[in-house]
Amino acid sequence: MQLRTLGSSGLLVSPVCLGTMTFGTPVAEQEAIALTHAAIDLGINFIDTANGYEGYARYLGSAGGVAEEILGKALRDRRDRVILATKVAAPLGPGPQDRGLSAVHILRELERSLKRLQTDVIDLYIIHWPDRHVPIEVTLQAMDTAVRQGKIRHFGASNHSAAQLCEMLWLAERQHGPKVVSSQIPFSLLRREMQHDLPFCQRHGIGVTPYQSLQGGLLTGKYRRGQPAPAGSRAAEKPDWVWKRDDALFDRIEGIEALAAEAGIPVAHYALAWTLAQPAMSSLVVGVKRLEQVQDAVAAAQATIPPEHAAKIDAICPPPWRLPDPVRG
Ligand SMILES: NC(=O)c1ccc[n+]([C@@H]2O[C@H](COP(=O)([O-])OP(=O)(O)OC[C@H]3O[C@@H](n4cnc5c(N)ncnc54)[C@H](OP(=O)(O)O)[C@@H]3O)[C@@H](O)[C@H]2O)c1
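Above: query sequence and NAP SMILES. Below: predicted holo structure tokens.
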């Protein structure tokens, strides 16, 4: 796979990043370790986790830590082969300091993540969601402290708009602190709300690492209109993690499937290749349950979408509205 730059970090990452949200359940520890090793052997050098990930067992406020523990074991003898990203902000308990982006929570959680991941340093520490109760200045100062202590190398954001990223860049300059280098956003053919933020990221050295580019498996061809979810699929095992499959959604999915067939590639490859071709894309954070799914994601990174499909895709899955450009249309 052709490596890509991760924003202004100076890091080169594979266009596919291993997502670990399902480590714990349905991907049990030994399978997760084997999948991680296989992914690295296939050329994936970028792994995404979060302090809250614990597979299907996750609920709002549960203690998390499971995926990080598993990754710590998986990477014990190959830590230097990967760029390791983890996240902070998720609620992990009932207390006021058990969540969010205060300096107390961030710096406490960082220590816990380092321990679980069995590493001295996290390459990319990601702010999982904005926290409206904490001034961004405070969060950025905590990131600065962590960089100066050598406990993180870079920090990124997730689920932030371009306006929020812009404020971070502006404050970093004022505070003489580190700049945000990446943005992890929900983005797929079926979910294009943040499309118009991408050029901002491209102009300002923020590498985009979209998540759910397969929309939780909806863009893999496994779900059929009017039929129950196939056994072993996410929709069968954990229905609240997959969108409700109604006729309007199937209209779009089937439209994309027809274009993939026209291009002569599997729909999962088509969905991932389209996402990767958007501006500012550094690496797709892909969730996997089996080795074939990792292999599929790696193969998709080589696929291309015929240029004449752009307008057809827009007709099926329109980009979000924006002010018309009176100069260029
Ligand atoms: N920053 C955030 O707020 C945030 C939020 C969500 C996720 N994430 C990150 O993004 C990663 C990906 O999220 P996700 O797993 O929800 O979304 P996804 O990548 O769109 O979907 C992954 C699921 O699709 C199915 N799948 C994958 N490849 C397939 C293939 N080739 N053929 C058939 N089915 C296939 C598998 O489910 P089944 O086989 O079980 O059907 C797999 O678990 C997570 O692991 C996490 O690292 C971040």
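The mean pLDDT is 97.
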